[in-house]
Design a protein that fits this description.
By secondary structure, the chain is an alpha/beta fold. The protein is 26% helix and 21% strand. β1 (5-9), α1 and β2 form a beta-alpha-beta unit. The model is unreliable at 196-217 (pLDDT under 50).
Length: 239
């Protein structure tokens, strides 16, 4: 299968392993990875700039399929010298009275933001991290984003009752290259090469043909063994 495929992905998502499997299964079809912001991920797919995207739900799903892959743990980020420094986990109730930043690229579906409302919303998660590191307020994000923006002067712990972000594979409802999308779905879901999401039957047939000579050698008739002469019985001694 030839052609090419462009996969967009949002910060915190790591598609490297899947890209490696793609290269093994479809070496003649280059896979291009493009990191995009949360705000532009869906647009890139709808506009045709990307064939599919790894993005976060909830989010913009107009005219797009979205196959959820996994759900991330939600964490709260704060300075290491904060009063919560000894905590192993926190709840939304613990955040009451504290300033909680909500950047414009926030990917959590809040019904109501806990804590004190900040005077403004930082443009990005990276900007909010800088503010928290300066000792002002806290930030709630998916764990992968806390790892991505990790700093030695910050700590994060799970927030047990907060909304969660789901990572999904998204592609157009009217897809023009469904075969490649089917291949990608099989890869991200961990399906084997022989599954229904794996290579087309013709490719599987060619792979078997390459192995056929070796199999024929192993299954050939065994070499004839030299027949041993029968042993003569010893004469019985009379009484």
């Amino acid at each position: 299968m030839t052609g090419s495929f462009t996969l967009a992905y949002v910060p915190g998502v790591t598609p490297g392993k899947w890209a490696g499997v793609w290269q093994e299964r479809l070496p003649e079809t280059p896979l291009t990875l493009v990191q995009v912001t949360i705000a532009e991920a869906a647009f890139r797919v709808r506009s045709g700039e990307a064939d599919a995207a790894l993005l976060r739900l909830p989010g913009d799903r107009e005219d797009l399929h979205a196959i959820p892959l996994y759900t991330e743990t939600t964490v709260v980020v704060f300075p290491k010298d904060h009063e919560f420094a000894a905590a192993d986990e926190l709840s939304l109730e613990d955040l009451a009275g504290h300033v909680l930043w909500q950047p414009l690229d926030d990917s959590l579906g809040w019904d109501e933001l806990p804590g004190q409302a900040p005077v403004e919303r930082p443009e990005t998660t990276a900007d909010a991290i800088q503010i928290v590191a300066a000792g002002v307020g806290m930030l709630v994000v998916p764990q992968s984003l806390a790892r991505l923006h990790h700093r030695k002067d910050l700590k994060y712990v799970p927030l047990t009752d907060a909304p969660q972000s789901r990572v999904a594979l998204s592609f157009p409802i009217r897809d023009e290259n469904p075969d490649l999308v089917e291949h990608l779905i099989g890869i991200v879901r961990g399906r084997s090469v022989n599954s229904t999401r794996g290579p087309a039957p013709e490719q599987a047939k060619q792979a078997k043909q390459k192995q056929a000579p070796k199999q024929q050698q192993r299954r050939g008739p065994a070499p004839a063994q030299k027949k041993q002469p029968a042993k003569r019985a010893k004469p019985r001694r009379g009484r």
